[in-house]
Amino acid sequence: MSKADAPWIDPQKAKTLPQLIRAAALAYGPAPAVSLRRADGSSETLDFEQLEQRSAEMARGLLARGIGKGSRVGFICGNGPMFGVVLAAIARSGAIAVPISSFIKANELVRVLKQSDVGGLILQRELLGKDLVARLCDAVPELLENPDPELRLESAPFLRWVASTGDDLPASVRDLDWLTGAAGSISPALLGAVESEIHPTDQALEIYTSGSMALPKGVRHNHGPVLFRTHFLRRMSPMSRDHERVVPLPLFWVGGLMMFLLPDLEFGVHTVCTEATTTDSRSAMGSVLAEEDMIEMPPGYTIWALGMTETLGPYSYGDEMRAPGHPLCAPLDHIAERYELRLADEQDAPVPIGEVGEIQIRGYALTPGLHKVERDQYFTADGYYRTGDLGRAEGKRIHFVGRDGDMIKTVGSNVSPAEVELELQQLEGVHSAYVVGVPDATRGELVTAAVVARDGAKLDFAVLESSLRERLSSFKVPRAYLQIQRDEVPMLPSNKVARREIQRMMMERLDT
User: Fold this and answer.
1) 43: which strand partners?
2) What confidence score (pLDDT) does residue 10 get?
């Protein structure tokens, strides 16, 4: 593609993902865009022109197969060129891209497929020795029972096709060539016409993260806010076109996508991926840092404070890594462009200076809503999002003081206690389980479980943990257990479990 083939757009002024991909190809051409460096020494690299060409081919294939404006397409890819191509292709077809964790286990995957309503699913066949198609078939056994690739599945009622790389695929899973091979029936001019009707107000992404209930939650974002945040984070990041940026975080989560891939594409930086990404809390946003982990940041490095999927990454940053007496997080000295923040009480009224309140945020790049969730469950009447985080104002500075709720933040990821409890209570011998987080200098919070055995059952926590590792992502598996009796479960006057008391019991156990 040349500048004569398409109108010139400065990548730093793109307002949709299709505009960004085309503009970057014109601006940076044969420069390396996205690479994957494997442990065996091999590598794969796409330059900006190749990224545009391959994503255009797949986008035309998607259009030929009936995907278009508002369609929902999920994909599971490791970090690397394929992730960039698939994301760009879905966006260029006008569809909604739903990236799914490559860490996901079968029990979690079937819930995400059903909750997300995806109509198509694209898979990378193998990742780090794991067969992702086999994992999908574990999640949805109907795929093995029915050889018809035109899917009609009760467990994923909107899913109509699955396409994957690799050989020896089940009859119900199509080869990825089924998509790209159909591209010839859609002309480049028609793809251009499609892209011209993709507007900043159209939904681009739906990122899945653990919710406060057992079901995951899908966080919606539109093209305009995604590109606005891309431009902002590019300006705030210490980067230049003459160096590579190694991505330490998964691209399917907001950290890797918004802090690395999209700003790099805008600025023409080479994004370098490795097969394994870190789950070290020291690399994750919002984690607790131990004293020995505190390092001097290089000049110009932004010290990010709080962020979330709902805000497309960090919405605040501090003037110092950690303020005296506030070890949990960098202070919120600055709020990102086009966001407003307040500390509010339970009636959503602002709290006085010095008092603790919930951090509530609103603004242009805030999610417009959660998939299948009524707005008033998370938003105030005047449009603020209830983050569940607690803060205290000290003059113009805000300090994060903890979470208002049960969600556990560990190694930079959210863990829903209800989801872990659901899996625990399906294991032999378990009557009930109560999962809580306890402070941990390395992981932020440690996932722990107090477990009640069924009458006459003897619990072997090593066996339970082994079973959980087959059912849950590793960061969700409890790191410590405590067996308690039914009459030891602390209760509140409202007849609800007193989770703070269980947390205290776990902390006493860990201290000993």
Assistant:
1) 37
2) 92
